[in-house]
Amino acid sequence: MKDTLRSENVFTKQGRIADIARQQPAQRLTALNHCLDVAWLTEAYHRVRQDSAPGVDGQTVADYGQHLEENLRELLHRAKRGSYVAPPVKRVHIPKEGSGETRPIGMPTTEDKVLQRAVAMLMEPIYEEAFYDFSYGFRPGRSPHQGLEAFWQAASSTGVGWVLEVDIRKYFDSVDRSKLKALVGQRIGDGVVLRLLSKWLHAGVMEEGRLHYPEAGTPQGGVISPLLSNIYLHEVFDRWFADVVRERMEGSVFAVRYADDLVIGFTHRRDAERVYRVIFQRFEKYGLKLHPEKTRLVAFGRPEKAGADGNGATEPGTFDFLGFTHYWGKSRKGYWVIKRKTAAKRLRRSLKATGDWCRRYRHKGMLEQFQTLVRKLEGHYAYYGITGNGRSLNQARTETVKLWQKWLQRRSREPGAMTWERMSRLLRETFMFPYARVVHSIYRANP
Question: What CA–CA distance (Å, rounded) separates 90 from 10?
């Protein structure tokens, strides 16, 4: 009951902030930090993932919670007094499949996560009033699957002919901090909030025991980072698209953005080429670079109409967005529809992770291994289980079984200890993996 009352109190305050933001769309909001109190920070603590990795101080979320009220009171005092010091973010790099590049993963301290979450809870109601409907990433009540459905609905209803696939190079590391702070300062004038944001933007990064201070970028891995990134791209792309691009197109045009993943659909080739010619300069104006090869125009007209309107496209291509390859195919009733299948690199990445797990934990009991693999497979279905993706889902299941058999075989010194014959019998009688299932039916409007 106490937790419910606390959450309702925060929700009520957020509603008031949203009302003020709606009533004063062009004014700076200068009185926000009065909402920051111990109850607000307590709610922020409970919204932090309990299993999140510790930062440079090694303190877990559970450790911080042992003296929660005392810790939060002291944190609140430092935050409002201005003596809070943003600790460096612990950073590790994981390789990107198919390239020599890596993806940085940041891990702030638990206390930093709590305070960032608290400030994000203050800022979200303000910016939710300004963000556009075609922005889906890291926003309350929005998901990747809503973005996927939005693209499908728009592409199907407008008769899309071309898709501009936009790839921002190292977006989170490239944000111009001065421009970002100026953008936030146009809407927020609360000194406590602005001071904390500046400290997070300029906090150091700890990599392999060495501390350094990047000149650009947002605090990757930080709770506040997705919101700041949305604020920046709202100005870089969303407002430009809504106020300039849409007004100057001859045909229909739509966009779907999920954080820094972005696609734009056009009915006319000439419109697509016009935007393609200027979009690089638009992003460079804000210190962002688009990948010259991955940012590309894709002919994506319905196959039976390709080339009929003089656009020059004879066969539609494919593109990846939000983990799925989008392509044209025939429905069961024989209609051309936009379909989706698990992107090949995503499937390879998932299976590689499964194989690595099987190798590391092959010494565990078979039942324990099976239960973990089932959870992994169910998690895969939970995201990729959309209508029309059955073949890829079945492939994930089949390859998972093969990987498990491979490492069960290798853990024994006896040759042939886990033959396919024995494995098949176990799969029938004892270890029955769940079959592929549709979790997200996004083709409700399908003919």
Answer: 30
